[in-house]
Amino acid sequence: MQQNYQPIGVFDSGYGGLTILKSILEELPQYDYIYLGDNARTPYGSRSFDVVYEYTLQAVMKLFSMGCQLVILACNTASAKALRTIQQNDLPVFDPSRRVLGVIRPSAEKIPFYTRTGHIGILGTSGTVLSRSYPLEIAKISGDHLVVMQEACPMWVPLVENDEIDNPAADYFVQKNIRNLFRHDPEIDTVILGCTHYPLLIPTILKYLPDHVTLLDQGPIVAQSLVDYLIRHPEIDQKCSKAGSRRFLTTESVQNFEPRAGMFLGQPLTAEKIQL
Length: 276
Ligand code: DGL
What we know:
Elements: E1 8-12, H1 17-27, E2 33-37, H2 49-65, E3 70-73, H3 76-81, H4 83-94, E4 99-101, H5 104-110, E5 119-124, H6 126-131, H7 133-142, E6 147-152, H8 156-161, H9 168-184, E7 190-193, H10 202-208, E8 214-216, H11 218-232, H12 234-237, E9 246-250, H13 254-265, E10 271-273
Parallel strand pairs: 1-2, 1-3, 2-9, 3-4, 5-6, 5-7, 7-8, 9-10
Helix pairs in contact: 1-11, 5-7, 9-10
This protein binds D-glutamic acid.
D-glutamic acid (DGL) binds next to α3.
């Protein structure tokens, strides 16, 4: 390993963050990356605040110990429940020069550019929805004039994690949650996929989403926001090594992880099993 190996860490509870990493690699291929999926303990979506925080902090510390100066929480649930505490309480004590970023703020920032009716729909895990992180961030950025309706989709991550996206059950649950969302607010014209697992369900989602609605996929949004961040923060950019390497870590068995992860990333990969 080269001397100044300081990769960008990308973390998710499982496979979902690979949909974000895929977009990041398209924009910023020159950097070194370590992806960590906590597949052994996924899903995080229905876990308590304390547990999501504890697991996420363990993952961030692992990535720091491997040289990462910058870690992206490529998971809405972890961003909603752990990011603020890590930024405000843990980083100042551990190392104030390191950075941990999430996926909710960059997504919330994009909303005003898409909506005409001012009515926004959020599809996410129960944890993300209950945290109210999206309505709060959107109000901070755009003020109170946007109407935000959320729908928790607790079955979507298990469908994706268990490779059941082509099962009729996927159609059933996707249709049910989208119907609920629009029953509560028919004026919604912009929907955020507020969970990094959901892009795998896009073909099914598009079947049930009204045609005039814009669907925002977080991968390209987060990737562009990271590009902007590294331009605005050259002191962080300088600390990220750029040898174009990729490492993939999972807390589950490599045999389970590799084929599915390759599907999410869109290319084959080799992984290593670690313990947190
Ligand atoms: N991929 C995660 C997210 O974006 C959630 C998956 C889970 O429930 O663990 O929210």
